[in-house]
Amino acid sequence: MTVDSDAVAGPRLKEEQALLRDEVRRFAEERIRPGVGERDREHRFPTEILRELGAMGLIGMMVDEAYGGGGLDSLANVIVIEEIARVCPSIAVSLSVTNSVCCWPIEAFGSDELKGRVLPILTSGEVLGGFALTEPGSGSDAGGLKTTAHSEGEEWVLNGEKAWITNAGAARFFVTFARTDQASGKRGISAFVVPAEAPGLSVGPAEEKLGLRASLTAPVILDQCRIPRGNLLGGEGQGFKIALATLDHSRLGIAAQAVGIHQRALELAVDYARQREQFGKLIAEFQAVRFAIAEMATQLEAARCLTRAAAFAEKTKQAGRLAAQAKLFASEAANQACWDSLQIHGGNGFSDEYEISRLYRDVRVTTIYEGTSEMQRLVIARHLLQ
Amino acid sequence: MRIELNEEQKLLRDSVREFAEEEVRPRAKEIDQSGEFPRQFYQQAGELGLAGVAVPEEYGGAGMDTLAYCLVIEEVSRVCASSGVVLSVNNSLVCDPLLKFGSEEQKRDYLTPLARGQLLGCFALTEPEAGSDPAAIRSTAVRDGDEYIINGNKLFITNGTDADIALVFASVDLEKRHQGITAFVVPADTPGYSRGGHEYKLGVNASGTTELAFEDMRVPVEQRLGEEGEGFKVAMSTLDAGRVGIAAQAVGIAQGAFEEALAYSQERQQFGKPIAEFQAIQFYLADMSTELDAARLLAWKAAWAKEHKKRFSLEAAQAKLFASEMAQRVTNKALQIHGGYGYIREYNVERFFRDARITEIYEGTSEIQKMVISSWVLDRS
Fold first, then answer.
1. Which of A2, A53, B64, B207 sits a CA distance of 20 to 30 A from A176?
2. Contact A305 B321 (CB under 8 A)
3. Which of A340, A35, A44, A333 is nearest to B290 (CA)?
């Protein structure tokens, strides 16, 4: 450990947050780090580690204690995700998706009956959740989705195909978006909680990805998929609003993931520069290397400040803009940091033996998923120009 | 991270903004062009307690904290960067070291009137051959009984044309390099003290930058700040703190430019609609606001660390590096959004664009900040 993130982070975490951070860091080092490279190479989803995270109370950590959750706030969430991502970004995203885009919208928009039925299962720590918004033809333009839902008696029947669904194959529930009214554009979209075992739901083959290879990403096919009427979130036609609110919230998880990756990229660069000799001295003595590291450390602090400040302000009017700023900045900065760290590693950085090569692949998606950088800029500009 | 402004700080920010809008903005363009030193502004600021924001009330200051000081510098710089740096130098580079290293007499005789804004201070460290490497200064101080005889030349001294008091760094033994450097509090009317005329600059043109010359200037021993040989430490610790002020200044300049660009983009019509409706302009604004908030948080974090007596050398260097480079990019984009209008003097962004440039240079260039940061990250952890 070369850069003490708390000493650098300054404005103190409260004691309980610092304890949580230390506990998660210890777990990540002892339980997640061993085998992280093999799991990546073998595209192996770490079910057993996620179980352990569940046993620690981190699955459903933000859900109210009344539903068996941890009752923690958004600041605790970004601290946890940062620490896990620092060791394994794949596990971080599996957890973040469960907490931020499955548990969160169910708790925020579900009926009491639905919450009582579903949340205790999610907070048991033994299952994961997913979020099925994206389709082959609608990525950033989520309002263009084509999946349909119509009611038949006491059930909703869903038809369509969802793409790039994180945790598909492992998740017990998917918060799923479908069109209940063909005519009225975004206002015709509704949100549902779809159990993975619902008749008519099937998961396609897992995607092979550039990075995050130890996380599951797969299509979800809905073919006459039947779910109970009570699984509607909010009201009919509220789906687009629910999707945007959920993404406003979940962006902070991705910002935190990027901060964790950035932190590790910096640590690896520092460690490497202090042991690699060229031209008869440590490369840490060359100003070009020193200045690149100074730049990485400065950008890291800026990203962490934005992320924590946005988490802290989550209940304010500025929350949407701040979260988008944090996600935009942290993901772009982390990409640059991994690039620079790999450059400092030279040829070794290009080898799978060195951790930086995995982070370099893993980090790439942070400027893409849960809203591309371009979508973040649109969100920010909309707030500024209101 | 828990940095929230308290009620007192919010009130301060609002009242300084009002003061800046009413009293500073009307003259900002004019003094930028003429180079006239904003002495009247300084006096008014002093009456409001802004000349020594973080100085305790018993020494004439406002008795507030470093974060409050950042807010003051940001708000003033948001309308006039020259006025911002004038205030910043008096607060961080003169009052701060007097408070930290001064004797009780020095605090009474010099700090108190400086913090009240009755006197104006400057910080005389840089020399023609000693910029980023201050240990190379050649000014000398030779002990003669109860006095020192000081000889030397100083360059690029902000507030120098108008300052009543200079914090002067000179060496008692050139052989000892930085260990010979000693600090002195010197009134400008001391025989042998002379100053040059106004130096016309690319930006912050009204900040009274000039050169100083000391010729057989006799300074009583009581005016030495700290011990012989302690001057380098005084200078370095003062600059650590000063960087927080420059970061705040950069944030203020960028904020001023950003607000102008945001407003202009909504008024300016091209191709039949406000240019704010074009995605390229929207993305500029999004990036500008993101960087601006990041820089402000870094500056506040450094201020917080200083206030709580934590290490803040790394934090201040990161804040200064990031904020100054951010200001350069943000003012550049603000000018770009204004198109041709941004290039003419009638529009404020032209001034902001010029003013931002110095923040990457003074009180430690970006390269010096990176040396400080990399030393913390690579050598001390």
1. A53
2. no
3. A333
